[in-house]
Specification:
Strand order of the largest sheet of chain A: 1-3-2
Helix content of chain B: 55-70%
Distance between the termini of chain B: 68 Å
Distance between the termini of chain A: 24 Å
Oligomer: heterodimer
Shape of chain A: globular
Number of strands of chain B: 0
Strand content of chain A: 5-15%
Radius of gyration of chain B: 21 Å
Order of helices and strands of chain A: HHHHEHEEH
Number of helices of chain B: 3
Number of helices of chain A: 6
Structural class of chain A: mainly alpha
Shape of chain B: elongated
């Protein structure tokens, strides 16, 4: 078991890299599967010093639902941002900084949350607080910053918390 | 039937083009630096997405194979766009913001970008 852990420090990453290689090849053959698997073993093994802790997921099945929600929000976000850019004058826009206190503690989960915030409605995640307990978010148009904070916490953070913690 | 497929592909291309233009227009129109970051990170996602969907539809309808390269491009775009945006935002905070011009970071007292490494001087002292 311990040896397995030394050889496969991140089993999920191994699977993801193998599948990614197969998709890059854009076709199915045993050669590419073997080569992809070699990459999937080699890359996590070589990068282990930079990612020492084991990443755990409690409910990996809920990721699919999360991806669905985020994809839908990205499409909506694009339309909203496009509307603001085209039809709202700069004087009427209320750009604002928002602090989001984090309940998440897993680094992978916080990374995913920050990425999601950047891709969705009018928000860009800009910085993390010194000990990683809060996220600084910039809003393109936020007349009510508290509502933005609550929506991010309810819509994304609670879901990520279910997946990772 | 062929006309119908062409119509779908054309629609995707037009949607992609519109969002691409809106994203670039936002860069000119928005008036402060942080807001300008919003236009290219988001409007272009659907801009590129539309073109990729058109490409997938073309492969499926006219060349009769399923192409997954487009999905990979989308995946890599989703991975890299937030990181680029975060880097640019951090540079902005470094150069134009002080701890007073940003909101309170809650229990940690300071944002990571403004935290000075202990017992170490990097760059000219401000």
């Amino acid at each position: 078991m311990k040896l397995m852990r030394r050889i496969f420090p991140h089993p999920i990453l191994t699977v993801v890299l193998t599948v990614t290689w197969l998709l890059l090849v854009n076709g199915w053959s045993l050669n590419s599967l073997v080569f992809g698997f070699m990459l999937g073993v080699l890359i996590p093994f070589l990068t282990q010093p930079y990612w020492p802790q084991q990443s755990k997921m409690k409910h990996p099945g809920k990721i699919l639902a999360y991806i669905g929600v985020v994809l839908y929000d990205i499409v909506v976000a694009n339309v909203i941002v496009a509307k603001i850019v085209l039809f709202k004058s700069n004087a009427k826009r209320h750009p604002a900084w928002v602090t989001i206190p984090l309940d998440l503690r897993t680094p992978e989960a916080i990374t995913l949350l920050a990425g999601t915030i950047t891709m969705t409605p009018g928000t860009v995640s800009a910085d993390l607080s010194a000990e990683g307990h809060a996220l600084l978010v910039h809003c393109l148009d936020a007349p009510d910053p508290d509502a933005v904070r609550d929506e991010i916490k309810v819509r994304y953070e609670s879901r990520l918390k279910e997946i990772f913690e | 039937m062929e006309f119908f497929f062409e119509l779908i592909i054309a629609a995707f291309l037009v949607i992609g083009g519109i969002f691409g233009i809106v994203g670039s227009f936002g860069l000119i129109k928005l008036n402060d630096r942080m807001s300008r970051l919003h236009a290219p990170t988001k409007a272009t996602t659907l801009g590129v997405g539309g073109v990729l969907l058109a490409s997938m539809a073309h492969a499926a309808f006219f060349e009769t194979y399923v192409s997954i390269h487009e999905l990979m491009i989308t995946l890599f775009l989703f991975l890299t766009a937030p990181i680029t945006a975060n880097f640019i935002a951090k540079v902005h905070i470094h150069r134009h913001d002080t701890p007073d011009s940003l909101p309170e970071p809650g229990e940690d007292k300071i944002w990571a970008t403004h935290k000075k490494p202990e017992n170490e001087v990097i760059g000219p002292q401000v």
